[in-house]
């Protein structure tokens, strides 16, 4: 098992890619704290995971709230004795073309997708510095590499995450803390299930593999980057997109 005796905190872990990552990390032997905004969503997610009672805990928290972030990190350390891995998975969308985008849409996405990642990482990195070890994994996107129509706010956040990833890799490397991002392409989730069939077909055709990815594809990438098998990988943005951007 790749992550035996490791402790991970995974934000936005109640559904989709986050829940798949929680499950993968548990299967690989990690202790996991699942963080999400609503207790009912967390409970629904946990019911899908199987019997990992000794390895799994949860925290109802808000990545945009500094006090909540600090409390979540402290809870993780108190519960399992350390924090080895942080997966900054929490994220939202509020799409609109530039000339139609409201300030509220911009602020909300930047607050969760960019500031939230900054706050979680700052708190976790302080603990990892003391331990002289750790892994930070950020949810980027192909949108953060190439932009996307109607997603000014989301693209700005994901481009920002890539920049922070490389900056943090340089700053934290001296403490043996690795920092990487994963940039998913089009992934089948509850969100995409609501998209019209015609649009889904178009998304499939953008991949050279002619299919959308699954949450497990991203979870597998996170598990590899979190493991000692990736001990010499830091400051990278790994595209997991089925060749969308080839």
TrEMBL record:
Keyword Lipid metabolism appears in the UniProt entry: yes
GO molecular function: 3-oxoacyl-[acyl-carrier-protein] reductase (NADPH) activity; NAD binding
Reactions it catalyzes: a (3R)-hydroxyacyl-[ACP] + NADP(+) = a 3-oxoacyl-[ACP] + NADPH + H(+)
Positions contributing to NADP(+) binding: 12-15, 89, 154-158, 187
A Gene Ontology BP annotation from the UniProt entry: fatty acid biosynthetic process
The protein's annotated pathway: Lipid metabolism; fatty acid biosynthesis
Pfam families referenced in this protein's UniProt entry, alphabetically: adh_short_C2
Keyword NADP: yes
Residues of the active site: 154
EC class name: oxidoreductase
Enzyme Commission code: 1.1.1.100
Highest taxon, organism lineage: Bacteria
Keywords: Fatty acid biosynthesis, Fatty acid metabolism, Lipid biosynthesis, Lipid metabolism, NADP, Oxidoreductase
Ketoreductase domain: residues covered: 6-190
Purpose: Catalyzes the NADPH-dependent reduction of beta-ketoacyl-ACP substrates to beta-hydroxyacyl-ACP products, the first reductive step in the elongation cycle of fatty acid biosynthesis.
Family stated for the protein in its record: Belongs to the short-chain dehydrogenases/reductases (SDR) family.
Complex and partners: Homotetramer.
Name the UniProt record assigns to this protein: 3-oxoacyl-[acyl-carrier-protein] reductase
UniProt organism field: Salinibacillus xinjiangensis
Taxonomic path: Bacteria, Bacillati, Bacillota, Bacilli, Bacillales
Gene name per UniProt: fabG
